Amino acid sequence: MPHPIMFGDDDPGLRELRDIALSYPEAYEKVSHGRPGFFVSKMFAMYGGSTKETGIMRAVPHCVMVKVEEAERSALQQDERFFHPAYLGPSGWLGLDFSVAEVDWAEVRELVDASYRLVASRKLIKLLDEA
């Protein structure tokens, strides 16, 4: 049974995230688990997610989830806007909740860029750096 669609094209921040994510070499969007995911060979960003706090699952519908380097994770987790996403968190992902504070799109671009570089091939990273 497919996952239900859990977003609308007019959701807060989705258009901006699409503009950022789809600007990367060979990036494409597909719906994964009912949410927009941004991929090269692997997923590097996702709009919307959930977290499991004190054993209770909570939706975070307006956020970006990205893969982060281990060295960056503890510093980012000190910021109340970031959360440990259910399912993807154990694989090195964090979420940035768009509803906690005004979104800094330059920061989102940096997070997406770092995540892209963690999953993209050397060839794609070279294309990115040459652009």
Automatic annotation (TrEMBL):
GO MF terms, alphabetically ordered: DNA binding
Pfam families according to UniProt: YjbR
UniProt-listed SUPFAM superfamilies: YjbR-like (SSF142906)
Superkingdom of origin: Bacteria
InterPro entries, per database record: YjbR-like_sf, YjbR/MT2646/Rv2570-like
Keyword hit for DNA-binding: yes
Keywords recorded for this protein, A-Z: DNA-binding
Protein's UniProt name: MmcQ/YjbR family DNA-binding protein
Organism encoding this protein: Mycolicibacterium arenosum
Taxon lineage: Bacteria, Bacillati, Actinomycetota, Actinomycetes, Mycobacteriales
